[in-house]
């Protein structure tokens, strides 16, 4: 009797569980049907595109080459986007599409992301993946800046481009494809090459509400434009992150985020960092770069063939004057990795999510100390050449900045003494003993308007440890020994090579 009662209770419990599951499934199905119904009604309410062709924003863009005729899917997606951006879109549908981000970031974090304004400069492999990730994550306002077109060779790394997009400006391609995924995202397309002369207009506030950019993404692969963008953002306190070179890279585990002053093993990063340091920007800009080392059997930059040189001048071979394109070996996955790391950084910064990146080297104080040492030694050299008079050093200026110091120590001399290779307690000091006075006077001698400075140049300095610099000052600069008496031919040859590098980059100083 007890067994029958027990079995009866088990059956009732099982029936209750099944009934609850069925009811829950029915409720969820009903909610899904309601949402699908709302979306279907919204799509059906869009009028025929034939009467709207004149208002097609794709057609309004000043573009390179003819625009392929939009197919029915393009027209439908564009009209849906126009409705969504006008506010005629169910917010519940948007929140459901962003549900995973909402759970991860929280309501407040997602709201910040949805209200953000991002500028992406460069819409190739890296920029396109960053853009797609940000749009899918909820960013509502994106400005795209790029002058280039989608080519067949773009398709191995571009986030959304198809064969139908070949020949289309990259900015248009991104809007064309992403409006089908996140129709509420507003795009501001700028078909233009970024240059310092137009920086203020390209990085201006969002037109509708005057909102300042929450973040600028540098995905440019031209060094000059990249440096101009980063310098402008640095000087105008615009949050920016820069993507360095994904070309020739193959190891995704080596991609990391760090300060521009601490990046290494990356050619584009090194060249960008050198130019920025010479313009006084030594840190404060996060960059995405790879620490992967090049080696035998790995891809490398392909040299231009004789046939390419025979085709004409740099201006003739590039899409724009002085903008020459070289075939760079690119594994299609790596720009995507760079782009998603960039987007990830932007999302975390905007939403205030905790970030635990490895801290960069804090070397600014070291640069200031080295500059003070350079100043002190130059005063002694001036006194020596001016007959030991101390008054000539009062108010003496040295035409060297902390940025110059950073460039010489980190780039020209690779953070090591040129004499022994020791990387600690580094100083900079004049290499050759001057044969005549190093004092430069401007204005009436002895008057309050007189300016006194040293004729020191970047190429005159050499990196040594403090102990080596003290000996060099005593024996060479203030003593009677020659460089050949103190240093080996190998050291002298190394210093001369590094000084040539400094001379080549010295022209980049403002």
From TrEMBL:
It holds the Pfam family ThiF. Catalyzes the ATP-dependent dehydration of threonylcarbamoyladenosine at position 37 (t(6)A37) to form cyclic t(6)A37 (ct(6)A37) in tRNAs that read codons beginning with adenine. GO terms for cellular component: mitochondrial outer membrane. It is a multi-pass membrane protein. GO terms for molecular function: ATP binding; tRNA threonylcarbamoyladenosine dehydratase; ubiquitin-like modifier activating enzyme activity. Belongs to the HesA/MoeB/ThiF family. SUPFAM superfamilies: Activating enzymes of the ubiquitin-like proteins (SSF69572). GO terms for biological process: cyclic threonylcarbamoyladenosine biosynthetic process. This is THIF-type NAD/FAD binding fold domain-containing protein. It is found in: Mitochondrion outer membrane. Residues 100-357 form the THIF-type NAD/FAD binding fold domain. Residues 44-73 are annotated as: Disordered. It comes from the Eukaryota. Keywords: ATP-binding, Ligase, Membrane, Mitochondrion, Mitochondrion outer membrane, Nucleotide-binding, Transmembrane, Transmembrane helix. Gene3D superfamilies: NAD(P)-binding Rossmann-like Domain.
